[in-house]
Predict the 3D structure of the following.
Amino acid sequence: MGNIIYNKRLTEEYYLMKVEEKNNAEMGQFYMLRAWDNEPLLSRPVSIFDRDDDSITFLYKIIGKGTKLMSTLKSGDNIICQGPQGSSFPKVKGKIAMIGGGVGIAPLYLAAKKLMEDKDNEIDIFFSLRGVEILREELSSVSNNLILKTNERVVGLVDADKYDYIFTCGPEGLMKDVYLGAKDKKAIVYVSLERRMACGIGICYGCTCKTKSGNKLTCKDGPVFLAEEVFIDE
Ligand code: FES
């Protein structure tokens, strides 16, 4: 159970919630969040946007009953935080592009922040959002170059031969386009998959995804995978 430090409305859809929670979470991992008793039935999987040893910050978007309820919580309220869960982005070195959309920008922000701690790394961010832009200052502080667009695609702006690695998270179509754009080019692509989750801890098999090496669980084996592992039919 975590005590909410703040639950800030960024736009009509996006909120940033900071919760007191001791943790050793890694970039790319997520928590199952729950602030209600019976309804809705399932907890919500939410990626970690930021962290320190005593707190976790979540970026979430109102997409249903659970996230709507979360948006009504106030500083001092409690929320059940089950995690951190899942795999993390690798600690790579070199020139790295972060390409994301929507709420997929959350794990990429933390990845950029962590990788920027190595001064030899160079991080370029390419994010697109529908509607209104958010978090420009924060994103700018964790990147060498920031391209932040609204209602516009960004994948076509990235030359995968100029990067050692690409991390991507967002709508499935965006991530597939990133993968296809980097096929046979220099960059190695990691994706953070978004799937509907029930248990979030590898019990229900509701988040199965097809990979080159058989079916895997997005919540336990992922959400971070090598793109070539999961986009096998492309
Ligand atoms: Fe239950 Fe992944 S959500 S196994």
Q: What stands out?
A: The CA atoms of residues 113 and 142 lie 5 Å apart.
